[in-house]
Amino acid sequence: MVMAILQFGRCRALVALSAVGLSLGWMMGTGPARAQSASQTLTYKATVATICTIQHMSGGTSAVLDFGRHLNVASVHVMDLDSGGHGWSIRCNKATPVPVTVTLDAGEHEVSGQRHMAGPAGALIPYDLYRDSALTKALDVPFEIDIPTTGASPIIYGRARVPAGTHDGFYFDRVRITVAY
User: Fold this and answer.
1) 96: domain range?
2) Is 61 helix (H, G, I), strand (E, B) or coil?
3) Entry pTM
4) How far apart are alpha carbons 79 and 56 in whole angstroms?
5) Where is the Spore coat protein U/FanG domain (predicted)?
6) Integer Rg of the chain from CA
7) pLDDT (tens digit per residue) in 20-52
8) Structural domain contains residue 3
9) Positive or negative CA dihedral for 67, 102, 106, 161?
10) Is cis: bond before 99, omega within 30 of 0?
């Protein structure tokens, strides 16, 4: 703080001037100090992306359509195995146009347009995927689905035809699900 003696005519005054800046113009007779101001426009923005997610009904991103465990079918001509259905969920935000198109590829072990599960020694078990429990709506072509505000939960059904003489072992395939919007 700085102390100064100011004289106005015959009057003297001891005035304290602070380092933050007291306007000397007022004390010197040039008028009162005025507050300075500045303004700036601030812009706020957000982007809402159009997005859909695919999840297994139990919450994960990977799903298993399990045909179960069966005895060796060497003595059986052909065995049909039904999966009983498997649920998965498609969730899209409200910015996503509906309906969306869902496509399942032919899988990792497709031969001549037929999906197969691969097993020991290159053995294959053919299977088909369906949209309905009656196994009449095959999932070989893209299909459209409406996504309500809570999401859609389509179920995939499967049927495998195990040929006679199929080797014992674990058989699997992976099918990619794509949602286009």
Assistant:
1) 52-180
2) coil
3) 0.61
4) 28
5) 40-178
6) 38
7) 444 444 445 555 667 788 888 888 878 777 778
8) no
9) positive
10) yes
Residue the block writes with tokens 């939960």: 153
Q: At 106, which CATH number? A: 2.60.40.1090
Residue 4: inside a domain: no
Task: Give the long-range contacts of residues 125-128, CB within 8 A, separation 24 or more.
Answer: 125/160, 125/161, 125/162, 125/163, 125/166, 125/171, 126/160, 126/161, 126/163, 127/67, 127/158, 127/159, 127/160, 127/161, 127/173, 128/158, 128/159
Query: pLDDT per residue over 48-71, tens digit each?
Result: 777 787 776 655 555 566 666 655
Percent helix, strand, coil in the chain, to 5, is 5, 40, 60
Please measure the distance between the N-terminal and C-terminal CA atoms of the chain and give it in whole angstroms. 69
Q: Which residue has the tokens 């969306």?
A: 100
What CA–CA distance (Å, rounded) separates 106 from 116?
A: 9
